[in-house]
C-alpha cells in the first residue's frame, strides 16, 4: 500500500503543500515580527519626541518665582498612549520625581543623549520582571542635555500580536490543507485509475490475451498518450503473434512437403518398388529437386535471420550497374521466351556506384523471380535502370494481378506469397536497407505492380 502510486502521489503532493505552507507561514511571521517591532519603535520615538518637546516647553515657559516643576500627569498620558513613561537624568525642578518614574541614566548611552540623538532599546526596569521596548528622547534646555524622556511598551504585547497572527495562519493552513486533501484525492483517482487499468491490461497482454479492455483517453495528456501507445503496442503484438504462428505453419509446410517426397521415394527405392532404371532415375530426380528446394529454403531462412540480426558484412566495390542489370535480365530471358512474355530492358543511365554488387544482383533476381511468378503467360515484364537527384533506381514492372493496398506491407514479410517460399521480397527489402537504400512498391489491382530499388549514387 505504502509503495503504490495511489499513496505516494498524494503523499508527495501533500508533503510539498505542507512544506510550502510552513515556509510561507515562517516567512510571514518573521516579516510580521520585524514589521511590528519597527512600527512599535517608530511609534515610541514619536511619542517620546512629543513628550520631550512638551516637557521642554513647560520647563521654559513655566519657570516663575516659585520654580515649580512641569506637571505631566503620567497616569493620564500612559492611559492615552498605552505606554509606560519614565524619566532619566538630573532633576531640573524640585519635586520633579513625583511626576515621572525615574530610571538610572546608566541604562542609556549618555554620549548619544548629549549629542541629542534618540535611542531605541530593550530594557528591564529595576524591580520589574518584564522586558520593554523603549525610546529615549533627550531633554535639552539652553543647549545642554539634562536627561531623557523614556516611552516604553512591554515586549509581551508584541508577542501577543505574533501569537494572534500565528493562530490565524494555523486556521488558514488547516482550511487550505482540507482543500488540498480534496484536490489530491480527486487528482489521485483521475491519474491512478487509468494507470491501474493499464497495469491490468499489461497483465492480460503478458498472458497473451490481446483483447484486454483499455481506458478511453479523456484528454491529450501524458496518460492519454500512454494509453494510445499501449493500444498500438497491443495491436502490433497481436499482429506479430499471428505472423509468428503463420510463419511457423508455413515453415513447417515448406519443410514437410519436400521431406515427404524424399521419404516416399527413398522408401520406394529401399523396398525395390522402383526397380527399373527409368523409375529409379525418376525417383532420384524427385529426391534431387526436393533436396535443392530444402537447401534453398534453409539458405533463405539463414539469410533472413542474418539480415534481421545485422550479423553480415558487405563487400563494397565500384560496380557498373548497367552490366549488373543486364546480367539479371539475361538470366530470365529464356523463361520469358518460353512463356511468350513480352520482356523489355530499359537502360536510361550507366552509373557506377560503390556498393555490394552480388547483393544488388540478388535483389534484382528476386524481383524478377517474383514478377515471373505472378505474371500470366503472354503478359509483360520490364526491367529499367535510371539515375536522378543523387540516387539510382532499378525498377521491375509486371502485368500481374496487382496487390490491394491493405496487402502492400504484408508482401515484404516472410511466407506471405503463395508462390515459392515467400522469402524473396522479405530478403530483398532487408538487403536494400542494409545497402543504404530502400525497396518500394506501387500497384494497381488488375493492372500489375512495380517494385523499385533505390540506392544512393554516392555509395
Class of secondary structure makeup? alpha+beta
**Outline:** rod-shaped
**Assigned CATH class of the largest domain:** Alpha Beta
Q: Based on the structure given, which CATH architecture of the largest domain is correct?
A: 2-Layer Sandwich
Count of DSSP E strands? 12
The percentage of residues in β strands lies in: 15-25%
H-E order = HHEEHEEEHHHEHHEEHEEHEE
- In round numbers, the mean pLDDT is 78
Round the Cα radius of gyration to an integer and report it.
Answer: 51 Å
User: Main sheet, how many strands, which sense, barrel?
Assistant: 5 strands, mixed
The total number of structural domains is: 3
CATH topology of the largest domain: Beta-Lactamase
Low-confidence stretches: none
Strand order of the largest sheet: 2-1-5-4-3
Instruction: State the end-to-end CA separation.
Output: 59 Å
Q: What's the tally of helices?
A: 10
Tell me the helix content. 40-55%
Amino acid at each position: 500500500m505504502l509503495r503504490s502510486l495511489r499513496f505516494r502521489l498524494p503523499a508527495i503532493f501533500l508533503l510539498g503543500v505542507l512544506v510550502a505552507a510552513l515556509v510561507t507561514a515562517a516567512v510571514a511571521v518573521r516579516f510580521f515580527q520585524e514589521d511590528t517591532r519597527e512600527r512599535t519603535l517608530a511609534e515610541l520615538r514619536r511619542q517620546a519626541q512629543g513628550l520631550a518637546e512638551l516637557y521642554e516647553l513647560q520647563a521654559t515657559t513655566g519657570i516663575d518665582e516659585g520654580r515649580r516643576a512641569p506637571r505631566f500627569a503620567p497616569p493620564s498620558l500612559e492611559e492615552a498612549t498605552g505606554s509606560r513613561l519614565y524619566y532619566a537624568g538630573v532633576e531640573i525642578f524640585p519635586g520633579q520625581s513625583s511626576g515621572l518614574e525615574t530610571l538610572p541614566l546608566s541604562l542609556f548611552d549618555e554620549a548619544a543623549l548629549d549629542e541629542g540623538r534618540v535611542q531605541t532599546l530593550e530594557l528591564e526596569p529595576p524591580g520589574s520582571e518584564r522586558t520593554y521596548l523603549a525610546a529615549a528622547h533627550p531633554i535639552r534646555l539652553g543647549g545642554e542635555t539634562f536627561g531623557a524622556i523614556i516611552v516604553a511598551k512591554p515586549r509581551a504585547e508584541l508577542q501577543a500580536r505574533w501569537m494572534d497572527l500565528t493562530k490565524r495562519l494555523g486556521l488558514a493552513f488547516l482550511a487550505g490543507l482540507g482543500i488540498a486533501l480534496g484536490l489530491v484525492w480527486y487528482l489521485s483517482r483521475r491519474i491512478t485509475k487509468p494507470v491501474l487499468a493499464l497495469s491490468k491490461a499489461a497483465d492480460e497482454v503478458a498472458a497473451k490475451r490481446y483483447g484486454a479492455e483499455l481506458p478511453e483517453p479523456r484528454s491529450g495528456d501524458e496518460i492519454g498518450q500512454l494509453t494510445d501507445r499501449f493500444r498500438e503496442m497491443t495491436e502490433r503484438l497481436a499482429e506479430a503473434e499471428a505472423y509468428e504462428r503463420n510463419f511457423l505453419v508455413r515453415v513447417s509446410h515448406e519443410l514437410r512437403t519436400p521431406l515427404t517426397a524424399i521419404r516416399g521415394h527413398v522408401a520406394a527405392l529401399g523396398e525395390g518398388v522402383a526397380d527399373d532404371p527409368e523409375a529409379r532415375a525418376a525417383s532420384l530426380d524427385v529426391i534431387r529437386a526436393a533436396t535443392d528446394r530444402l537447401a534453398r529454403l534453409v539458405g533463405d531462412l539463414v539469410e533472413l535471420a542474418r539480415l534481421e540480426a545485422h550479423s553480415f558484412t558487405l563487400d563494397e566495390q565500384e560496380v557498373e550497374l548497367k552490366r549488373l542489370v543486364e546480367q539479371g535480365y539475361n538470366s530470365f530471358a529464356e523463361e520469358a521466351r518460353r512463356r511468350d512474355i513480352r520482356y523489355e530492358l530499359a537502360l536510361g543511365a550507366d552509373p557506377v556506384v560503390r556498393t555490394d554488387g552480388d547483393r544488388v544482383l540478388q535483389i534484382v533476381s528476386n524481383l524478377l523471380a517474383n514478377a515471373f511468378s505472378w505474371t500470366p503467360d503472354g503478359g509483360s515484364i520490364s526491367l529499367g535502370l535510371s539515375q536522378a537527384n543523387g540516387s539510382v533506381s532499378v525498377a521491375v514492372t509486371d502485368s500481374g494481378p496487382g496487390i490491394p493496398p491493405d496487402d502492400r506491407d504484408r508482401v515484404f514479410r516472410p511466407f506471405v506469397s503463395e508462390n515459392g517460399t515467400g522469402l524473396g521480397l522479405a530478403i530483398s527489402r532487408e538487403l536494400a536497407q542494409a545497402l543504404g537504400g530502400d525497396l518500394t512498391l506501387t500497384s494497381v489491382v488488375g493492372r500489375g505492380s512495380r517494385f523499385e530499388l533505390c540506392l544512393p549514387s554516392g555509395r
